[in-house]
Specification:
Elements (H helix, E strand, L loop, with lengths): L1 E5 L2 H11 L3 E2 L3 E3 L3 E5 L5 E3 L2 H4 L21 E3 L3 H15 L5 E5 L4 H18 L4 E4 L7 H8 L3 E2 L4 H29 L9 H16 L5 E11 L2 E5 L11 H14 L4 E13 L7 H12 L3 H13 L18 H11 L37 H17 L5 E12 L2 E12 L21 E2 L2 E8 L6 E2 H9 L9 H10 L9 H10 L3 E4 L2 E4 L1 H12 L6 H15 L5 H15 L17 E2 L6 E4 L3 E4 L8 E3 L3 H5 L7 H10 L1 E8 L5 E10 L4 E6 L3
Parallel strand pairs: 1-4, 1-7, 7-8
Antiparallel strand pairs: 2-3, 3-4, 5-6, 8-9, 10-11, 10-16, 12-13, 12-15, 13-14, 17-19, 18-19, 20-21, 21-22, 22-23, 24-25, 25-26
Helix pairs in contact: 1-5, 3-4, 4-6, 6-17, 6-18, 9-10, 9-13, 10-12
């Protein structure tokens, strides 16, 4: 009998469906050959400091830092449901008829660690030794599950992946536990610190400081426009922009305008050429996240959520991938997908620009599978799937996209400039990923125009706020140079030159917001006072979590994967760093939290303030007034979030106007939600406009 341990219940159900003929039991499924059970994500976590001292929870103590355990130990998470499922898995592993245990964690280092830790924990506590194999699922279709079950590898073949994941878990624990306690004890306020979290904060901090310290500079510019076919066309002559707005510069600019007053703009030459527009690459997770961020405003975390759901339903391949290439052994699979799509515009290409093993670490680029969905759980899931589908079609489109480029060379006296326009001559893959034309009016060679010229004062613009997509690109390769080739980029990727991983970055950004280090408004990220305090005081403490230091750790993790470094060696290196960082004699200022006052409490008259999840009375020890931003009632009427403006309206008027709510039948409506404050709760009464 073979026992398959899946990472999540949904994956287990896919395995049950693929195997067929399975009987449902309490926490598992079984037939004559296989047993399928599941974890619920992480069942085990690393022990806390108190656990190593075998004591109850105690106050954090500076004298115990830095704390580095002689041996890292895991414990069962305190949750009745998780404990019950762990007991089920343990009983199945202990069964005498189970001869082989199959790790079916997600096809990544985290999945390797989650399931192996469960198995090894039970093996050690019960003195068990059975065969362990690895089921690697690049996609969760029935055919792939059946095929991969016949190709399970001995667990020793993924040992390096497990060691890398284990090392990442250990060092993140070491940095997080020690530096969080150190900063919190120093400042008398909770300051979570993380190996990837700090570089995220620092990038946003640096940008915001650049904006704050930016000093605008005025400069003169000569504007030149012409009229063509009732359109005003702006011409950009490179010598018409000046460095400042001084009197001498003004005289220079006015002299140029004076000399050109009698001159005409001449269409000196007109040329057209056809350009084959390069096909896009398939998506990696980060390029998909950036694409959907720019096109649809999806956060990085939301895109990961939608694509993970599609993967678990068997509609797309494994999402946490950092490459835009497919493995060379996947050619037949791609042919099957093309046959399934049955689109005459598509054809199989065997190109190095698509299939290249040298640019793949563990997972290939994101593609659809042969499972074509007929419905989706949400519109955003639909958008995500069709974005991946259309990119797949773009790559395998039969015809090239041909753009006709028109270039008009214009002269004004001794000055010249170019106008460039594009029109689609052959649609090709642009059928699936359309772009807008930029068609120029019909110029005639030697055609003349009387320019309209003015002298204007412009002002230099400050740097822009950081966006999630920009931050995502930076974390992918913080050492990237502007002229870096694709080959160099992939070499850096495989060498581990990155901050975080493609699977974790969105979560780290969300944590930065959760810990109130960063705020997000209209897709732009800003550092908070707490974030500024954290970054600047880490510097005062000489705690080096700079880009170079973080990349150094990432490269070491990759060395573990390549079997060039041991877990113990990296833990030793990090332990020495922590000994240097933690100075018990150093003292910092206490951090005082300043919360925005939303209004006055309707119960006691004190201030209402806000945290991540709710609005509440500042005197919360004596007053129970609070409103959760998300609750069952709001969910039931389709209200996604209770906002600050809603709260202000309730405190001043006693109600707020809710738009675009959803009835049980799916009908949209507007309503007034009246706040009714009782002794224990806040109730809501709905009123409708007649």
């Amino acid at each position: 009998m073979k026992l398959i341990i899946c990472e999540k219940p949904g994956v287990a159900m896919n395995a049950v469906k693929a195997l067929g003929g399975m009987n449902k039991k309490d926490g598992y499924f079984e037939n004559s050959e296989y047993i399928v059970t599941f974890a619920i994500g992480h069942l085990l976590s690393l022990q806390d400091i108190d656990d190593y001292f075998d004591r109850e929870k105690t106050k954090w103590n500076l004298e115990e830092l830095p704390f580095v355990p002689k041996e890292f130990k895991f414990k069962l998470i305190e949750d009745s449901g998780l404990k019950k499922q762990f007991k089920v898995i343990k009983s199945l592993i202990e069964r005498s008829d189970v001869e082989e245990i199959i790790n079916c964690g997600d096809a990544d280092r985290e999945g390797e660690v989650i399931i192996n830790n469960i198995i090894y924990n039970i093996f050690q506590s019960e003195n068990i030794n059975k065969k362990i194999t690895r089921l690697w699922l690049p996609e969760q279709t029935t055919n792939t599950i059946r095929m991969q079950l016949n190709n399970c590898k001995d667990i020793i073949e993924t040992k390096n992946l497990y060691n890398e994941g284990l090392a990442r878990t250990y060092i993140d624990w070491l940095f997080g536990i020690n530096l969080t306690r150190y900063m919190t004890l120093q400042t008398k306020s909770l300051f979570p610190i993380g190996r990837v979290l700090v570089p995220v904060m620092k990038f946003i901090y640096d940008r915001d400081m650049a904006i704050k310290n930016f000093k605008p500079v005025d400069y003169y510019v000569i504007s030149a426009t012409i009229q063509k076919e009732d359109k005003e066309i702006k011409l950009n002559f490179k010598d018409f922009k000046f460095e400042d707005a001084s009197e001498s510069t003004k005289e220079e600019a006015e002299d140029i305008i004076s000399k050109l007053e009698s001159k005409k703009v001449i269409a000196d030459s007109i040329s057209t050429k056809d350009i084959v527009k390069a096909r896009p690459k398939l998506f990696s997770l980060d390029t998909l996240q950036n694409y959907l961020f720019k096109k649809n405003g999806f956060s990085l975390a939301d895109t990961l959520k939608y694509v993970q759901s599609l993967y678990e339903k068997g509609y797309v391949t494994y999402p946490r991938t950092n490459t835009e290439y497919l493995a060379e052994n996947e050619k037949e699979k791609i042919k099957q997908i093309l046959n399934k799509l049955n689109d005459n515009n598509l054809v199989f290409f065997e190109k190095k620009s698509i299939f290249d093993d040298s640019k793949i670490e563990s997972h290939s680029a994101l593609t659809i599978t042969t499972n074509i969905p007929d419905h989706f759980s949400s519109e955003n899931e639909n958008i995500t799937y069709n974005t991946i589908l259309n990119r797949f079609k773009s790559v395998f489109c039969k015809n090239d996209a041909i753009i006709q480029e028109t270039q008009i060379h214009l002269k004004l006296g001794e000055y010249d400039t170019d106008l460039v326009g594009n029109s689609i001559k052959q649609e090709g893959y642009l059928k699936y990923e359309p772009i807008k034309d930029s068609v120029l009016p019909n110029f005639i060679e030697n055609e003349e125009f009387i320019p309209k010229m003015n002298l204007n004062i412009n002002t230099t613009q400050s740097p822009k706020k950081v966006t999630e997509a920009e931050l995502n690109n930076y974390l992918k390769n913080p050492l990237k140079k502007e002229d870096m080739s694709e080959e160099e980029e992939y070499k850096d990727l495989l060498d581990g030159i990155e901050i975080g991983t493609v699977a974790t970055r969105s979560g780290v950004i969300e944590n930065a917001i959760k810990y109130e280090y960063v705020t997000k408004k209209k897709n732009h990220l800003s550092i908070t006072n707490k974030g500024i305090f954290c970054v600047e005081n880490l510097d005062k403490l000489h705690i080096d979590m700079s880009v170079s230091k973080t990349v150094e750790i990432s490269k070491s993790l990759k060395d573990i994967y390549k079997d060039a470094l041991s877990v113990e060696e990296l833990v030793s290196t990090v332990s020495k760093q922590l000994e240097q960082y933690i100075n018990k004699e150093q003292r910092l200022d206490i951090f005082h939290v300043e919360k925005e006052v939303i209004g006055k409490c309707p119960k006691c008259g004190k201030d209402i303030v806000e945290n991540e999840k709710s609005f509440y009375c500042e005197d919360y020890k004596n007053c129970n007034f609070s409103i959760w931003k998300k609750n069952k009632f709001f969910d039931s009427i389709g209200l996604k979030n209770f906002t600050k403006n809603n709260m202000k309206s309730c405190l001043t008027k006693g109600f707020f106007e809710a738009k675009n709510l959803t009835s049980k039948s799916g009908k949209k409506y507007d309503a007034k939600l009246v706040m009714e404050v009782t002794a224990k709760y806040v109730n809501w009464k709905m009123e409708f406009n007649k």
